[in-house]
Amino acid sequence: MNIVGIIGAGTMGVGIAQVAATAGCKVVLFDASAPQIDKALSGLEKTLEKLAEKGKISREKASEIRNNIVKGEALQDLKDSDLVIEAIIENKEIKTKVFTELETYVSENCIIGSNTSSISITSLGAELKKPERFIGIHFFNPAPLMPLVEVIPSLLTEKTLAEKLYNLMKEWGKTPVIAKDIPGFIVNRIARPYYGEALRIVEENIATPEQVDEAMKTLGNFKMGPFELMDLIGVDVNFAVTTTVYKDYFYDPKYKPSLLQQRMSEAKLHGRKTGKGFYDYGENAVKPEAQKNEALYQQIFLRIISMLINEAVEAKRLGVANDEDIELAMQKGVNYPKGLLEWGQEIGYSKISETLQSLYEEYQEERYRQSPLLRKI
């Protein structure tokens, strides 16, 4: 892949451009807003300067990376690309419109990829004249730092393309996994309870956000609690992904979004980017101390971890990915301290099963149903 086209010069687009340029590819970065490209490239120059100052890369390498990226004035400037990766707004209609126009410019051999985190790859590629060249290539934010890339072939993708992209991502220094084209792929499907169950616990006044975060960090060794993480991702973004996954699973109660999260999104309490979310990020803001309660912390941890492990077991049962990729995806994509299947063995699958059965009996909700495989392993 000598020439790589990137559509979208937001944080993700310029991050992917940096990854490709670092691997020695010539990159054409295009965005419908020309000022956005200038802003992105200016930000990238500062990033590369900092990396060089810290000795992470040489000044020559920083210069080489920057020189490998050129600005695209129009979509047509991507015509010589061997691979194009789209990283624009999560809207199927807008993405499809871009792909169908792009296809009129690029060669027949050009691979077209989408960085979507939640839209069906099959549905996006179906509109193309050559859907067999279309594939999901899902990076995690920030793309230069997060090692994981989910490679997602659609039902129409040419059979050898996933392996080709898998090998390319390895060449780019990434940790690729191959996933089935299901809502949320591996990470966004399995990780839903980390947020959903945490929100449920707070909505029911069982604990405060800071208590939930503290429980998951102290008992589970998670680097960030669910509420800290939602504030970092963006409460609105997290809510949008949950809503998409919920709809795409035909309103399966397991993925039901939270009313609290919806109200937070409506109030524009989006987290760090707006200065306030579940926590206040104002200049003089003091983060509230969690009121320690060991028994409550155990209850919170067991409830959330059981939901996560159940999702990983169900993904294994459905062949969403192989065991190794399921474990790798959660560790490299969302920084989980260990693989969930391994964690299930450690805690004991019978203990996970009992916890979910108890929740099911208490709430009488399908949300807490167990994977049929969980009782067998």
> Reading side by side through the largest sheet, how are the strands ordered?
3-2-1-4-5-6-7-8
Give start-end ranges of low-pLDDT stretches.
none
Helix count, per DSSP? 16
The overall pLDDT average reads 96
What is the helix content? 40-55%
H/E element sequence: EHEHHEEHEHEEHEHHHHHHHHHH
The class by helix and strand makeup works out as alpha/beta
Give the biggest sheet: 8 strands, mixed
* Shape label: globular
The rounded Rg comes to 21 Å
What's the end-to-end separation, in Å?
Answer: 43 Å
Strand content: 5-15%
Number of strands: 8
Brief sketch in words of this structure:
The chain is built from 16 helices and eight strands. With 377 residues, it is α/β, with parallel strands linked by helices.
3D architecture notes:
By secondary structure, the protein is of the alpha/beta class. The protein has helices spanning 11-22, 34-53, 59-67, 92-102, 121-125, 161-171, 187-190, 192-203, 209-220, 226-233, 235-248, 259-266, 294-317, 323-333, 340-347, 349-363, and strands at 3-7, 26-30, 69-72, 83-86, 111-114, 134-139, 148-153, 175-178. The chain has an eight-stranded mixed β-sheet. Strand 1, helix 1 and strand 2 (26-30) form a beta-alpha-beta unit. The longest helix is centred in the C-terminal third of the chain and has 24 residues, at 294-317. It is globular and about 60 Å long. The chain starts with a strand and ends in a 14-residue tail after the last helix. The relative contact order is 0.09. The mean pLDDT is 96.
